[in-house]
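Input record (one chain):
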Amino acid sequence: MTYPANSSSRIARGGKALYGAPLGILMLEARFPRIPGDMGNGTTWPFPVLYRVVSGASPEKVVLKGAAGLLPDFIDAAKDLVRLGAEAITTNCGFLALFQKELAAAVGVPVATSSLMQVPWVQATLPPGKRVGLVTVSGSTLSPAHLAGAGVPLDTPLVGTENGKEFFRVLIKAEKDDMDIAQAERDVVEAGKELVARHPEVGAIVLECTNMPPYAAALQAEIGLPVYDIYSMITWFHAGLRPRAFG
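The corresponding structure, as predicted from the sequence alone:
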């Protein structure tokens, strides 16, 4: 709800169900804990957001099975968010880069499905000879189609967390509802260390998984390189929806 600048008018513009939260987030259906920093924790964001859980879109189905058959459900949920008042849409899983073009075409507002979309931006900041690397929840199923959907070069080096003790099995395999946060952090940090050990040309890391921001600072401190994630991308995305007024 806005008022004309430099005007004494008290006429407010309507037409939406909800106001003050221009960003809509499409959530996977999951039961693991969403700690501060996780995309699904409302306290993560320095601005209000709208959430919509997509029924049946489990992490296992989206990450391990290519989100097969789920596109209509994501489109319907995105349209619901727009009807409520969302002016832009994002998602709760980097693997939904598969649906970037289809969602953007269907909802009529800006759409940013995946943290992976940052890769070309970050690459542009790096000195010659350096490149972006990826840490993903599942290196074995992050396919060329996922990368292409986000505009990521297909030869981008990446490492997954499948060999960790906690992060992958709680988030993707849903073996339990609770999570050892310290061990999850170690899993993400170890994946990042493995990435830079294998690929010394990596000059910055983008975290694919939207559950990884709580561990980004620990990874950055360990490897001494810039680390970008869904939090860095969505705060940028939101800044265009509500630019700061400098008065």
